[in-house]
């Protein structure tokens, strides 16, 4: 299969607690060897996700407190809103669908009219909103989509980078990291190879 990878927050005051650490913001994507997350047209036909890798991802997604998406990736991930109703879907895919459906999600878009399920549409500045959300109580915030992530990277808001490095060279496409990004100091904290040839790499931002 191909990976498918209004606003109540605006009317509530932030639940800040100075004694607690800020919420962690993570950015993870399937990435080609030459650093792309999709073909130029957004296609993900090159991504390798088997049962082993999907199960690993499912376990990671249980720890997420909030998903934040740009329009393009949300429209791809929207598949999972009803995927569990497909009788041909595999058990580990249905498990992911249930995890994803239950999690709160924010979509930043000025063009979408509606969103589905446990999802909030936000039209305001994503950087300012993410700064605010990081101050609130709650679990990990996971950003999906290279365009949205690019703005957050430029403002040094990403705490962890999670790459699922696929054994493929695309030659061109949508880059995992934005061009011209300034120096970032990272520490490799986790690696895991999979039988498919995918290698998982997790990096933490150094606070210096």
Describe the structure in your own words.
The protein is built from five helices and ten strands. With 208 residues, it is of the alpha/beta class. The chain has one domain: Dihydrofolate Reductase, subunit A (3-Layer(aba) Sandwich), CATH 3.40.430.10. The strands form two sheets. Strands 5-4-3-6-1-7-10-9 form an eight-stranded mixed beta sheet. Strands 2-8 form a two-stranded antiparallel ribbon. β9 and β10 form a beta hairpin. The chain starts with 24 loop residues before the first strand and ends with a strand. The relative contact order is 0.24. The N terminus is likely disordered.
The helix-strand sequence is EEHEHHEEHEHEEEE
Give the domain tally. 1
Distance between the termini: 42 Å
Structural class of the secondary structure composition? Answer: alpha/beta
Count of runs of 4 or more consecutive helical residues: 5
Number of strands: 10
CATH hierarchy: architecture = 3-Layer(aba) Sandwich
Give the CATH superfamily. Dihydrofolate Reductase, subunit A
Low-confidence region ranges? 1-19
Shape label:
globular
Tell me the helix content.
10-25%
Main sheet makeup: 8 strands, mixed
> Strand percentage, roughly?
25-35%
Radius of gyration: 17 Å
């Amino acid at each position: 299969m191909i990976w498918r990878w209004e606003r109540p927050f605006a009317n509530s005051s932030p639940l800040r607690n100075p004694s607690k650490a800020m919420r962690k913001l993570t950015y993870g994507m399937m990435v080609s060897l030459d650093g792309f997350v999709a073909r130029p047209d957004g296609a993900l036909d090159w991504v390798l996700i088997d049962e082993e890798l999907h199960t690993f991802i499912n376990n990671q997604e249980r720890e997420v407190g909030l998903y934040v998406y740009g329009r393009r990736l949300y429209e791809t991930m929207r598949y999972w809103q009803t995927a569990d109703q497909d009788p041909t879907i595999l058990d580990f895919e249905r498990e992911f669908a249930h995890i994803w459906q239950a999690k709160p999600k924010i979509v930043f878009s000025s063009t979408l009219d509606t969103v589905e399920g446990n999802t909030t549409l936000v039209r305001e500045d994503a950087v300012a909103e993410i700064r605010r959300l990081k101050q609130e109580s709650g679990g990990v915030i996971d950003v999906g989509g290279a365009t949205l992530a690019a703005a957050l990277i430029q403002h040094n808001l990403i705490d962890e980078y999670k790459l699922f490095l696929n054994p493929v060279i695309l030659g061109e496409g949508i880059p995992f990291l934005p061009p011209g990004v300034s120096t970032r100091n990272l520490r490799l904290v986790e690696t895991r190879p999979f039988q498919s040839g995918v290698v998982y790499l997790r990096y933490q931002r150094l606070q210096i």
